[in-house]
């Protein structure tokens, strides 16, 4: 039986999903894709999980598709038809997903980072859309990457395949924060602690709101948002949050300090 390539652990409401295939730079092999999707589904279904952190072992976050498996293969064997489901699971997860990056990310690996709600990388991390340099198109990952990037940067980096550092990744919107290697864990914890303060239903609804396409007119947009706001003000979670604020205590969903 093959060794597990993706590990899963839950501690105080934080699910850690860790890519552990350093022998091929955490490439998106068929086994890794299968295990990653299974763990994402498990974290999303687990009511005890509040936030998902996606990290890695080794010096590389993810090098993209496993090109050894893709050589001479059709679209299905490359995972082209399977990989979008992973990106969609992350993008539409009702629970916030945080990427923890301590090394290079390329191609599909960058697509995964873009699908996450928040991404933190070390200064030593680097990124590139290398597809054009091997004669293919960064098509699938564009669905998650393009909403994040400044348009000029997207044109430049998709067309040239040039490597760029974490500082630029933050400047163009790919990641939220670039930190020293010894500050990565604390910066990720800072975000997960803040995310855990949000009501689970409110977080899921806010994520859905952020993904929505605007209505055809401003009046319709305001009407839709007024309805959404009223629904959550009146909900059990909303009323509990209001009471907790008035009583100067943590809301019932806030994990105990530890």
UniProtKB/TrEMBL annotation:
Concerning InterPro entries, the annotation shows: ClpP/crotonase-like_dom_sf, Enoyl-CoA_hydra/iso, Enoyl-CoA_hydra_C, Enoyl-CoA_Hydratase/Isomerase
EC number, UniProt record: 4.2.1.18
What Pfam families does the annotation carry? ECH_1 (PF00378)
Question: Which Gene3D superfamilies does the UniProt entry name for this protein?
Answer: 2-enoyl-CoA Hydratase, Chain A, domain 1, Lyase 2-enoyl-coa Hydratase, Chain A, domain 2
* Keyword Lyase belongs to the record: yes
Q: Which family does it belong to?
A: Belongs to the enoyl-CoA hydratase/isomerase family.
Name it.
Answer: Methylglutaconyl-CoA hydratase
The species is Crossiella cryophila
